[in-house]
Amino acid sequence: MESEAVREFIRRExxxxxxxAIATARFKxxxxxxxxxxxxxxxxxxxxxxxxxxxxxxxxxxxQVKKDWFNRGGLTPLCLDHVLFLMYNEGxxxxxxxxVDPTSGRLSQLFRKVKHMMVRSTSAEVxxxxxxxxxxxxxxxxxxxxxxxxxxxxxxxxxxxxxxxxDICGGTREASAVLSYLSGCGKAQYLxxxxxxxxxxxxxxxxxxxxxxxxxxxLDILHLTWTTENLQxxxxxxxxxxxxxxxxxxxxLNSGNKKVALRHAKALKLASESREKCIxxxxxxxxxxxxxxxxxxxxxxSEAIQIGARAIKENRIDVEEVQRCLQELGDSIDxxxxxxxxxxxxxxxxxxxxxxxxxxxxRKLELELGNQNPHILVSQAGVDTAAGETEASESSKSLCDAxxxxxxxxxxxxxxxxxxxxxxKRDSISKNLKLEAA
Length: 438
Description:
The chain has about 450 residues and is mostly helical. It has helices at about 5-15, 20-25, 35-55, 60-70, 80-90, 105-120, 125, 135-150, 160-170, 170-185, 215-255, 260-315, 320-350, 355-370, 390-405, 410-435; strands spanning about 60, 95, 130-135, 155-160, 190-195, 200-205. It has 16 helices and 6 strands.
């Protein structure tokens, strides 16, 4: 990363960066009580994190931060050593040696945590580190990695090879930091198999629960996954050879050199045969992985069915009763959806209605209501029962405003029918619940 790009970013983010008086005050060393320089410390801390996030830097070098990032005409902040040490003490920065070793056991990791809590490093030790890890960015990175794995996995945990894990993390060093952090949180576990060569992998929990212990099935899945990736690499190499042999054969044939063209054609045939064998073997391995995944899903479904059956049995609930309740619940949800659709339609239809049309419709509705039951009181209009003797013009205006708020137009009859239907279904469900309680 170019230091000039960082300095340009800082100049854009800090508007008064070039002002001499302000810069001189910021570059001074901390002195006195913390309350005297707390604001300056927060400024430098936030700026360091902002630069790291913008340039996707999980690791920072103290010397580079001090001499390159904030170098202003040969002047560097005198307080930067103190800032980094405070960030280390407050947990914003950790050293590589402070991370747990994912290849060690749980007990060893616990002892390492206790030791790290009891023995803190000094300022000199922190500043002489080659690279420091920004913990807020490390946490963001772990969330991103788990999200990527969750998009391709539906289970609560997954097993992948170390190479795949490094590709997702963006490098070997980043993968080591992410794996160490996840292992320390109990969300990941290092796996290894000693075959003809060492096969390394990672088991990651994709849920809120901690990762489960390693099983023989996890190691088998790791071996199969590693085999799949190797076969895919071989297949890519074979495809490249086929393409090269094909082009060479055509070029030799066009130049009239039939012997050379024949030799390239034989090489192309051998490469094609190898490709078919590789594809066949790859399909078999993927089929085995698919069977394992299907077996796991069947197990999950079976466990869910058993739990549901046990709950029904313990509560003495009839299966037909459960089905009836589910059907009534579904009908109630459908009715609510119909009400929402009707209200949505009334919203759109009300947009094009003029005030004169609303008043005319209200007069018709008022006449109809008066003919049917002259004692009906419209509570939604906000008319108090004691105000029945007010003038007709004021009552008409209040009712008109109320109907406007309710957005009653051509769909008034339809909304009333749906609401009556919903009420009847709600009464039916209430009756069933009372019978069940009895």
